[in-house]
Write a structure and sequence with these properties.
Elements: E1 9-13, E2 16-20, E3 33-37, E4 44-48, H1 55-65, E5 67-72, H2 78-81, H3 84-91, E6 95-96, E7 114-117, E8 120-126, E9 135-140, E10 146-152, H4 170-180, E11 187-190, H5 199-224, H6 230-237, H7 246-262
Parallel strand pairs: 4-5, 5-6, 10-11
Antiparallel strand pairs: 1-2, 2-3, 3-4, 7-8, 8-9, 9-10
């Protein structure tokens, strides 16, 4: 595995560059990916997920961005959006997300809306599930040719994501993955972890994984009884997962149990 490169601008595609925040952890993987989007030859930038509070990261991102035209948030978890208000103060750029409480100087996203900024067309896809306010951004150049999708925590560059119950919802998450599966060969630019190719294949992998886990949870509930706690299910089903992640797994199991009760 390539060693992460922190707090430096790394070009990923002709229109997408990355500054990896130095905040690695169990839930953030290598750290938070702050994306800088702009068409070649354009001096304006769209920032996606400026990250959590850290002066070094803020200074690095703003120096790399130059003129910030807009700040877009894939969702409201602090490691993605904590510094957004400060970016607005320093640049005047509007901050926009699905949740109106996150927005500063701009309206909340509408599903299907196209944001035209920094020489690009960025289509907003509501992809709830990891959190209620999760969104993905399909990037196209000025002629409308799509080339990549930013997925926040809905699809990660490594491993699978947590459905953060009760804000997150598994039924919504599965529907979002089926929607992202339609993107075929588009490149995935995730909120954490490395870039992935073939969005459709990755989304199908996530769907298959969720179905496997649901089958395991069904079997665990059958063995433990209908009143089994989420923790008891985790201890039976997630034996292949580092115990340090079991608290996060318990949240996902709560979401799976709620889903099974409803279906």
């Amino acid at each position: 595995m390539t060693a992460p490169v922190y707090e430096q601008l790394v070009t990923v595609t002709p229109y997408a560059s990355l500054v990896l925040q130095s905040n690695p952890g169990l839930m953030t993987l290598d750290g938070t990916n702050t994306w800088l989007l702009r068409a070649p030859g354009t001096d304006r930038t769209v920032l996606v997920d400026p990250g959590q509070e850290d002066q070094t990261h803020l200074e690095t991102v703003l120096a790399a961005a130059g003129s910030v035209e807009a700040v877009l948030l894939t969702h409201g978890h602090y490691d993605h959006c904590q510094v957004a208000a400060r970016v607005h103060e320093l640049t005047g750029a509007p901050v926009r997300g699905v949740d109106p409480k996150l927005c500063i100087g701009g309206a909340a996203f509408a599903d299907g809306e196209v944001v035209e900024a920094a020489g690009l067309r960025i289509q907003i896809w509501a992809t709830p599930g990891h959190s209620a306010d999760s969104a993905s951004f399909v990037i196209a150049d000025s002629d409308g040719t799509a080339g990549a999708v930013l997925t926040g925590d809905t699809i990660l560059g490594r491993g699978t994501t947590v459905v953060a119950f009760p804000d997150g919802d598994l039924g919504s998450y599965l529907a979002s993955l089926r929607r992202l599966r339609e993107l075929g060969d588009l490149t995935v630019l995730p909120g954490h972890g490395p870039v992935l190719e073939h969005a459709g294949e990755v989304a199908q992998f996530y769907l298959d994984h969720r179905e496997q886990r649901l089958d395991q949870v069904r079997a665990a509930v059958a063995a433990l009884g209908p009143e089994a706690s989420a923790r008891a299910v985790v201890e039976r089903v997630y034996v292949d997962v580092d115990e340090a992640l079991w608290d996060a797994a318990e949240v996902s199991v709560e979401a799976q149990l709620a889903y099974l009760r409803a279906h």
